[in-house]
C-alpha cells in the first residue's frame, strides 16, 4: 500500500501549529480592519495574461515560476503567484473605482503559488495577507500602509524586523535613469543572462545577489539621484510621515523588488532570523498597473506580508503567541446515561460561548481523564451513574485537582461564572 505525501515545496498546516498561523493572519488583518480596509476574495486562478501583463513579462515570477494550465475549454489560466493584479482586476470589474469614494481600500488573505526551488522559507504554496489602496496618489496612504504592517509585526512581539525603503521614480524620471543605468551596466564584465537582463530589466541587475556582480556595481547610477522634483517631494513626505509615526526605516537605494509594476515608493520588511529568504513582506506604489491591465489611470499602493515567513521569524525569536485555549471544559462521561447527559451539557456550554469538548468512543475513566488533560481544558466535568442519580455532575479543576458536585441544571451558569471570574483568554 502506498501513502501520499504533500507535493514538493508544500506543507500541511495542522494543530497545534496551525493555531499560530491563524493568529498571525489575524494580527495582520486587525490593523487593516481598523483602517477602513474591506475584505476581498478573488479566485485562486486567473487568466495567464493578467499576470504576464501585470507582474511583467521579464520577471522571474512570470517567466519561470507560474503554474499554468490550459483548461478543456481552451482557457489559459495560472494559479495566482501574487494578489495585487487579481485584486485590482476585481475592483475594476466591479467598477468599485467609479463609486466616487477613492481610494478603494481592500485586504485579502490566502494561498499563492510559485514554482520556485524549495528551501527554508521558500515554498511553492505559501500564504500572504495583503492590502491594496486603489485610486489615490497621496504620500499619507503609502505611509499608512507601511505603519499598518509595522504595527502588525509589533503586535506579534517581533523585534528583529527592519524596514527597507526606496523610491523607483515614475514615468517622468525613470526612463532617463534606466538609460543611464544601462549605459553603466553595458561596460561591465557580466555573463550572457545578465547582459540580456540589462536590455529588458536593468534595475533588476542592481538586486543581483552575487558578490562578483555587486563588486562591479560600485559607482552605478542610483534612482534616488535621478528622481524628478515631484518624486523627490513625494518620497520626502512619506519619510517624514513614517518618522512622525515612530517607524524606523533604512534607505536602500538598491531595493528593486521582483515585480515590474512598482513606481515611486517601494519597501520591504526583512528579518535576520530567516537565512537567505529574509523578506517577511513587501510592497509599494503601482501607479501604472491599472492601465497595463486595461483600466483607467488609478494610482495605487499596497503590500503583501508572508504568513509562513512571519511564523518562522516568530520561531527564530523564540516567541510563543498567547493563544486562546482551544478547549476550556472537557466532559468525561462514565456510562451511557452520563454520555447522554454530558452531551447536552456540552452543547449548552458551547451555545453559551464556552469552548467545550467531550470524551468520545466510550473511553474508561483513565483514558478519558488523559484526554481531558491533553485538551488543555481548565475544568473537567465527570459524571457516573451515582452522580446522575443525585442530579449532580462533578466539576473538577484540572489545575488544582479540586472537585465538587454541581447540580446539572446549575452547571452552565456555574461554569460560565467561573471562567469569567478567572479570566480565560476566551472569556
Ligand atoms: P512579494 O514580495 O513577491 O510581493 O511577496 C510578498 C511576501 O510574500 C514576501 O515578502 C514573502 O514573505 C512572501 N513570499 C513570496 N514568495 C514566497 C515563497 N515562495 N514562499 C514563502 N513566502 C513567499 C507581492 O506578492 C506583491 N503582490 C506585494 C504587493 C501588494 N505590492 C503591492 N501590493
From TrEMBL:
Chain ranges of the Aminoacyl-transfer RNA synthetases class-II family profile domain: 23-324
Keyword Acetylation part of the UniProt annotation: no
Catalysed conversion reaction: tRNA(His) + L-histidine + ATP = L-histidyl-tRNA(His) + AMP + diphosphate + H(+)
Gene3D superfamilies documented for this protein: Anticodon-binding domain, Bira Bifunctional Protein, Domain 2
Classification via SUPFAM superfamilies: Class II aaRS ABD-related, Class II aaRS and biotin synthetases
Pfam short name (any one): HGTP_anticodon
UniProt family annotation: Belongs to the class-II aminoacyl-tRNA synthetase family.
NCBIfam families in the cross-refs: hisS (TIGR00442)
Localisation: Cytoplasm
Keywords: Aminoacyl-tRNA synthetase, ATP-binding, Cytoplasm, Ligase, Nucleotide-binding, Protein biosynthesis
Subunit structure, as described in the record: Homodimer.
Species: Streptomyces harbinensis
GO biological process, one term: histidyl-tRNA aminoacylation
InterPro entries found in the cross-reference section: aa-tRNA-synth_II, aa-tRNA-synth_II/BPL/LPL, Anticodon-bd, Anticodon-bd_dom_sf, His-tRNA-ligase, HisRS-like_core, HisRS/HisZ, HisRS_anticodon
GO molecular function: ATP binding; histidine-tRNA ligase activity
Enzyme Commission code(s) on record: 6.1.1.21
Protein name per Swiss-Prot or TrEMBL: Histidine--tRNA ligase
A GO CC annotation given for this chain: cytoplasm
Annotated L-histidine binding sites: 82-84, 114, 128, 132, 257, 261-262
Top enzyme class: ligase
Listed HAMAP family: His_tRNA_synth
CDD domains named among the record's database cross-references: HisRS-like_core, HisRS_anticodon
